[in-house]
Request: fold
Amino acid sequence: MDKNIPRYNVQLYIYDLSRGMARSLSPIMLGKQLGGIWHTAIVAYGDEFFFGGEGISSCSPGGTMLGPPDTVVELGETEVTEEIFMDYLSSLGETTYRGDRYRLFEHNCNTFTNEVAQFLTGRTIPSYITDLPSEVLSTPFGQILRPILDSIHIAPPGGNVINGGRNI
Reply:
């Protein structure tokens, strides 16, 4: 690697949307232990980037209503410049990650951060996060709740939408 090429740190911010309740209630409701209900974001270039019902958004790290993350995972470094990254996000925001494409179980914040992490570092996010939807849906209670949960669009307040999100 060329030592003159700038490198940028990339982190994964992990939030438990249940604030610990999933750990307590999941054995009763689902018959299996869940560590949390995970929302994730990528932190790079001094900002936090995430996907929700409004599309791709950004804020200062820890700047949503969720506050500071429960866990920070160092994903590594990238040589991708901020300009190239923002062009990449704009493209995703106009296609794959428009707000109207958000689906709680199949196409969510964790799907987004997994894809962006791979783009920037070649690494994926932890499987306990990406496997959570299938774990919930594999239970009878998860199947009962699915129609209700499918209508939920999570968009943590406090971010600035990078793309209009709902353009068609």
